[in-house]
Amino acid sequence: MMGTEVQLGVQSHKVNLNESQQQVSEKLHSAGNKPPPTPLQSADTRPNGGFLAWIQVACSFCLYFNTYGVIASFGIFQTYYESNLGYDPSKASIIGSIQSFLIFFATALSGPLYDAGLCRYVVTAGSFMVVFGIMMQSLCKEYWQFILAQSLCVGIGGGFIAFLGPTVLSTHFTTRYPLASGIGAAGGGVAGIVLPIAFRQLQPSIGFGWAVRILGFISLGTLIIPVVALRPRSKPASQRKAIDTTAFRDIPFVVLLVGNFIMLLGVFTPFFYVQSFALDSGIASNELSFYIIAVMNLASALGRIIPNFFSARFGPFNMFLLMNLVTFVVAFGFIGVTNLPGLIVTAAIYGFSTGCIFALQPVVVIRLCPDPRLIGTRVGMAFCFLSFALLPSTPIAGALQTRGGFTAVWAWTGATTAVGFFIMSLSRGIKTNWTLLSKA
Fold first, then answer.
1. Are 323 and 218 in the same domain?
2. Which of 13, 136, 189, 351: CA 20 to 30 A from 268?
3. What letter does residue 49 receive in the DSSP assignment?
4. Range of the domain at 291
5. Minimal CA–CA distance to 109: which of 384, 391, 388?
6. What are its GO cellular component terms (predicted)?
7. What is the pTM of this model?
């Protein structure tokens, strides 16, 4: 009797054990079928401030200084090459357009390297190429030499480091990210003031070569900071891709890039041609016309910071579109400018609005990225595509100036920025299901 009870107890225990094992197996099987939690689903550990985070803002400032700042300050070389070397406007602008193209295009190479955890190597290689290219530019005598040094070397090096600022900041900040990114992006506007003024003051007394070398030393001093201190917080992705194929099915992302592409065909044109416009139209003397670029870039620096205070409240996409609206309206306004005060005001407003656009451009791209592990890849893909808009942009403007004067140049700028604005507005509408007051 007792043996029977013991046997029944053992069998009952085995049944319970089998049921428990089956339940555990089912749970494991169920868990195995579920996708692993993404970083967006896990707890957000970004500090949103602190000493190390703000050091990254300083690094971002220096990176923008030597990338977008180089683009913004090319106008001084455009004028110098036309006046002193005898290049026609279209030929001179090709140097800058190739440089701008490569600063955007090379992010396609550096983005996956960043995602692979090679940030230190990327920033070091890019910084070296920028400084080396500027130093070689100081030795250039022939047109092809300017293409090799200023266009190719500085352009590729700049492309390696251009996107690192906003990308690294996204690993340190949450709600303060638009503001932090804007402060970093102000480096581009500051460079647009400092570099042209330095060249303008130095070139007549010490010559082109040494004036450019001093600009190279300025770049060296500012790029040492990110080489030493730039630190992303996120770990490399386990699977690194050069291309994120899901991006091609992301309709808001694709539409945004199409609109952005068209906008970039004309948005940089005033930075290249406003000084020549002031001189050719008799609005300003050679001395005063130079400082119009400085005014535009000062306003651009402010535009990269001030609107970002509001973008955290109203949404970076909304602020981005608002500044695009202001940009295309003011671009058409250049057509009616006939005096110096009008030109200064128009240039300042244009600089302010485009400064905000340049600051929020990568922010909006990152905001549309569904997985933080793919930020580097997505940004690289976006800027690689957008780079092809910069290649023909200023040469087209130069050809229009030769045939139709500056009215054609400003009409081109206004038309491209207007069409770009309306298409990018479609991206915002699709993303928010056409909710007008959405904090996009």
1. no
2. 136
3. S
4. 243-439
5. 384
6. membrane
7. 0.78
